[in-house]
Amino acid sequence: xxALKILTRQLKNSFLTKLLLILTCIASMNALHAKYPRExxxxxxxxxxxxxxxxxxxxxxxxxxxxxxxPNISITIDMRDEGLYYEPSKGSNWxxxxxxxxxxxxxxxxxxxxxxxxxxxxxxxxxxNAAHYYLSRKYAKGLIDKYxxxxxxxxxxxxxxxxxxxxxxxxxxxxxxxxxxxxxxxxVDYDMLTAALxxxxxxxxxxxxxxxxxxxxxSVVERLSASYPNRLVYTDAERMQEPVHYxxxxxxxxxxxxxxxxxxLAKSKIIIRTNSNLxxxxxxxxxxxxxxxxNYMNDRLYNGAIKNGKLNELNKKP
Length: 318
Description:
The radius of gyration is 24 Å and the shape is globular. The termini are far apart. It folds into two domains: 34-134, no CATH class; 152-297, 3-Layer(aba) Sandwich (Rossmann fold), CATH 3.40.50. It has helices at 2-35, 53-69, 95-98, 121-134, 137-147, 152-165, 190-204, 218-227, 244-247, 251-265, 277-285, 299-306; strands at residues 38-42, 73-77, 103-104, 115-118, 170-176, 209-215, 232-233, 270-273, 290-293. It is 49% helix and 13% strand.
């Protein structure tokens, strides 16, 4: 019996020794990985024609979150003659049409050549969705201010519109994403939109307000213009019955229109919004803006999302 106890103790000690050795090796490998430079190449997704403008924005924002936390990572953004916004006359990398920074170097001060990692479509989609679903607005705002720089000519266009139409007024923003969005979120009818708008305007009281509308639906522009003829403003962005980002052949301009609309929405005191990447990014740009959500992801997407983390206020159902 005594011999059996000794053998059992030896086996147990042997197992613990091996386990400790394995854990030590894993810790050493993680430390080595953290110190070794890794280059992440973000190019255009191949799904759904390259993805919408702000889905791509959220992909990049998601990787900038990793970049912020891991000093061994460097990032290069190169859309490589692909995507819905690629226009040959303006260059091969459509991200460079709108933003100044294309490369983020690692912070290791290492002379070692980085290990190149080209991101697959599944990972891009997951990272982009995670940025949309889970990032807090204040944290996302910090990343944007630190790492994403919009071209000055676009900022000038936004400022010019603001000075002419929005300055010194309480801005109530509306983002109504229609056309094909019903595939991802429940449809919002016009009466639901106007009911939410009426409620928010009543709560504002006697103030000088203006309604800024961003939408891909021509009928929404027409109906709100009839109801608020002296209060409604909007850009001359292209709108049609089909999804603009797929149907329009004005590749550069449709991206610029979307970016300008998003930046103007971010000037709002209140945003009444349907679920979308564009509206989400406008809320990241202005984390103090009040949000009125008109709808949410469909049940399939929502049930999948809540399994992987705590949803932010853009997506969490009341």
